[in-house]
Amino acid sequence: MQTALAAQGCRLSVLGRAVCPVLARHRNSCIGESGPASNFQRLRRRQAAAISSSRPAAAVRVMASAAAGSKGKALISVSDKTNLDTLAKGLADMGYEIVSTGGSATAIEKAGVAVKRVEELTGFPEMLDGRVKTLHPGVHGGILARRDLPEHMAAIAEHSITPIDIVIVNLYPFRQTVTAATQPSYEVAVENIDIGGPAMIRAAAKNHEHVTVVVDPSDYAPLLERLGGAAEDAAALAFRKRCAWKAFQHCATYDSTVAEWLWGAVGEGPAPEMSVPMKLAQGLRYGENPHQSAAYYTDSSLAEHGMGGVGAAVQHYGKEMSYNNYLDADAAYSAACDFAEPTCVIVKHTNPCGVASKDDLLEAYRLAVRADPISAFGGIVAFNRPVDADMAREIREFRSPTDGETRMFYEIVIAPSYTPEGLEVLKGKSKMLRILEAPPRAPSGRSLRQVASGWLQQEADSLKPDAIEFTCASEKQPTPQQLEDLKFAWLCVKHVKSNAITVAKDGKLLGMGSGQPNRVKSVQIALEKAGEEVKGSVLASDAFFPFTWNDSVEIACKAGVAAIVHPGGSVRDADAVECCNKYGVVLLTTGVRHFKH
Ligand SMILES: NC(=O)c1ncn([C@@H]2O[C@H](COP(=O)(O)O)[C@@H](O)[C@H]2O)c1NC=O
Known about the structure:
A six-stranded mixed β-sheet has the order 10-15-14-13-11-12, with helices on both faces. It has a six-stranded mixed β-sheet with strand order 18-23-22-21-19-20. The protein has 24 helices and 23 strands. It is elongated. Bound molecules: ligand FAI. Ligand FAI binds at residues 77-79, 101-104, 130-135, 169-172, 194-197. This is MGS-like domain-containing protein.
């Protein structure tokens, strides 16, 4: 190595490192002959002098003079330059010396604040296209040295390294890069993996006893306030500890994003290990019941992958969302977004009790409420089209079809948008009504559910009737209208808890049976809800019928159902066909099951 370098005209420096004239020229051209370049050269001379001296005291003097007159040193290296000017001014006004990397230093200079380039600490230019800027003992020694250990302080002093008291870093925007509409190449994504930033964040977080680390521009104001407050006390240490916690979490989220992207690029099947980046959106008053504490977290990977839905909703009005509100609103909006036609879905306890699809959204709403007004009272109303003033007035004034007098009460209305007038009218309904605006929920995506000691992961059930083959198993063929109704009932049943049965007609849910541990009970409940309207209706079952005679299929046929759809696949499928033929009922199979547990 030495010989090869010598052949290129290199010599060994006093620090024992090879100094190449080519590199030296490069440094000068990068940094310039004056200003930072001469500082850089002076520093190297001081470092050399300190190291060649056998007396540590000399080095201590060098270190002290580097920090003379300053309250301490702050290192700033940020990709997101939001409020950087305010931060830098604030720190400088308090007497902190600021050291910074390329783009951050330029921005700070532009704000009229004195700043040193990090090269002055490292004695090296930024290199390898920015892959190496701060990865150097001049930086990491300054961050990691324990101020309470004289041997640590002597060790850094010996190498002319000065302590760094504040580290302000935020990382290359990896997630934004890989989720951008214009997909970056693999190489561009890799270059956006930050290495030096996390190294500094982790170092500063580890040494929180002495160093403050800030990774989020929203923490600049609290930082300046803290620094302007009392000198070292318990509150100051608590602040640094909290910053350290946030810093480690920031790195963990960052790394999980990189790992997930990399698995997506090279892995097959379920990732052998994964972490979910969750961000606290709000603490909730309580969970499913008042004695259970609860909180709501957003999953940044889902939100930024454009999953939309409740997690990405804006609340325009009403009381704070509760735990159950989130669950029910998600069920209602996920169902509504599954329909192509203008649709209203009303949900109670995560099950749709009213669904209607019509060209006119107003009519869809009226029909959805009428499907089961008793259950709709206190429910969640979801639309897959914008809510205008007429719709808002209808929601506000609608009387319960049960007694014709009581105004309907709802917990939540959720829609993709509202006209300004629609929103104002709806706000007049009740202070209790939560009004949510949410981007449509994407039909696919990852779903995670917790079980004791583990998590279940699956792909969301994104199959819609258009992608399913409906095969007629009976002698009687469906009319075009019946086929439409069967597809509608099929889409409804997908959103009902198993064992799920839906009865529908003319784009309107007439009855549903949900969550029963046996299918025949769900059939009976759905038929009972449909009442007289069952004659000529259609029935959908989320899974095959295990029994027919005196059971699900025959009961439905006898009640007057005109057409039935189920996945098929039972050993007794032939019974269902025979029964439908006997009663002159249409029977379709799909080969697709829609269990929902
Ligand atoms: N390579 C390094 O030594 C290094 N040190 C700091 N960074 C990152 O560089 C960014 C700031 O760069 P600039 O100040 O040039 O805009 C920050 O996001 C910081 O996390 C680095 N970049 C990547 O690893």
